[in-house]
Every structure is written in C-alpha cells, then in structure tokens.
Amino acid sequence: IPGGSKNSCKPLLQWLWGKLFSIFTPLSFLFCAFQFAYSNGPRLPITSMGTEECTWHGHFRQQKGLVLEEYALCTCVSLSSKEAGEVSKWRFMVCSLFQIPIPSVPAFQPSTPIPERLEAVQRYIRELQYNHTGTQFFEIKKSRPLTGLMDLAKEMTKEALPIKCLEAVILGIYLTNNMTTLDRFPISFKTHFSGNYFRHIVLGVNFGGRYGALGISRREELMYKAPVFRTLSELIFDFEEAYRRCWHTLKKVKLGHCVSHDPHSVEQIEWKHSILDLDKLSREDFRKELERHARDMRLKIGKGTGPPSPTKDRKKDVSSPQRGQASPHRRNSRGDRRPSGEKKPADSKAMPDLNGYQIRV
C-alpha cells in the first residue's frame, strides 16, 4: 500500500475506504460519513505518510426550491491526484442526478392534426409521472366551476409535480380547450378485485366520429386510447377487457356530458349523467345504454350549433310587421312592464319561445 505502515491498520482502512468511495457513487458519501465519525471518535486523524490532506464536499439539492440542503463531509482521507480526479467526476454525476427535468407544455401549430395533438398531450401527462407517494398534491373539488378547475390546471403545469387520474382529466381538459372540434367527456370506472373496490377516471374524446381517451394510470392499458373506436361501446368494452387482464371485474361505468371549451365558463362539469350498473344490465342492454348516451351527447351538441337562437327569430318577427300593424312582441312587453295589478291571459301565439334562453355570465 503506498505510504502505508506494516505495524498500523489505519493506512489500510484509509486505502480501502478511498477505493470504495471512488467505485460506489451513491454510497460513497455514506462511507465517508461513517469513516469521519470513526476517525473523530478517539480524536486521531487518519492520514498517510508523504501525502496531503483532502476535503470533499457533497452538495445535494432538490428541484423547484422545495428543499435546499448543502453540507460538507470532511474525511481526512488522502488519495493520489488521479484518484481525486475520479472522485470529482463521480461527485459531479451524483449531483446531476438531482437535476430533475421539468416537462414543457406542448405547443401546436394551427396545421397540426388533432390526433397528433392528442398524442403530444398524453406524452406530456405521462412525463409528469404517476403519483405513488400516497399524498395528493392538488385538491380537486368536482363541484367547482370550470374556470376554477382551469386555474388549478395552470398551476399543475407550473409545479410539474406527479399527478393521479383525476388531476390528469382536469389537465387534459385544460390542454385541449383550443381544439374546438374535439368533444371531451369524463368516464369513471368502478372495479372489484380481491374483496376491494377501486375507482378510476379518464377523459373520453370524440373526434370525427371516432372515440378515444386521455389519462394516467399505473397500468399502460388503462390510460391512453387513440381515437380509433367507431362507437362509444367499443371504447368501453376495450377498457373492460384491459381490466380483465388485470384480474379486475368491472362493476359500474359513469359517463358525463361534453365539457365546454370556454376556460372562463362558470358551469360545472357533469360528471355522471349516466350511471350504468353492470350487475343489473345484460350485455346487450349495456351496449344500448352506451349508444343512447352517445346519441344524447350528439343531440346536446347539435342544439348548441344547429338551429338559430330565439333572439334571431324574434328580430325577424319584429321587423316583418307592416306599418299599420302592431308587433305582438312589443305589445306583450309593454303589458309586462305596466305597474297595474291586472293579469291578462297569456296568448300562446303572442308569447315568444323562451326555452332556448340561458343565463350567461
């Protein structure tokens, strides 16, 4: 051993500890701490003859400013210049392990197809990773309006912390708001395995009559589904088959209505418009209920974009009467504003259709 002594075992320990420090990168700092405590116990420094004393500093930092710890380990172990260079290289590699990259929010060109955008959104959700800590980093209340949930999704992109399935649904809605030709609706599952019940949720999507899903899960087959399924029942049956491969039995499916693309909307997300209990439905009835829900979503979307609003009809009716005739709409509106207590019977032909009116904030 270079610089060692035949009658002392401390140079041997020093040499062995130095070799271990240069080989085992993650454990080397622990070895040095143990040796430092051992050498400072009897107050006898461990040094080698003919060499200089070295001090190694280990810096451990955690990302995003949550924890910042810096401490130095004084080891009093001497190495040659070549071994010291190797130790510096390993120390740099250990420090770089804690530099966790933050995924960037996907940005799209106007010409990017919707399927490619969905793949990029799912890739971003997967890069955030699933939260296995048992602690939910973001509190999500389903009763909150859509604008509040979108503010929470914006905070998720800034923090870039691991998420769970419900957080992935909110994040998927936020990242697909600019895709106006894409319909989004929540899909919830309740399964049974080994005496316990488990719940999962994904964001169903419909583009061009093809159904798919966005989300995150511990299982790869229970998260992303490309929009290639012709019907909603085919998508749900594919999830059911994936659960069966995981030894889970599907018990309930909850389907919501389409989510608005307006990030400032005060409407609440309709999480469970249809609740389907598989224990009470046959296979054919289950498929019919799924297709009925898909038809209801199409009708709801058609009402919002198909027929003209009652406001436009009223403007046409007001401008159409001749000069000598009084408009029935104007006459009724004056009678409503009259402060007298008399109540006139409502004329069905004269009253405008108010079913299409909605209060918007």
UniProtKB/TrEMBL annotation:
One Gene Ontology term, aspect cellular component: extracellular space
Active site as annotated: 165, 200, 217
Domain of life (superkingdom): Eukaryota
Basic and acidic residues composition bias: residue spans: 333-347
Keywords: Membrane, Transmembrane, Transmembrane helix
Region (Disordered): 295-361
A Gene Ontology molecular function term of the record: metallocarboxypeptidase activity
Protein's name according to its UniProt entry: Vasohibin 1
Protein's GO biological process: angiogenesis; negative regulation of angiogenesis; negative regulation of blood vessel endothelial cell migration; negative regulation of endothelial cell proliferation; negative regulation of lymphangiogenesis; proteolysis; regulation of cellular senescence; response to wounding
InterPro entries: VASH1
Residue runs in coiled coils: none
Residues annotated as transmembrane: 20-38
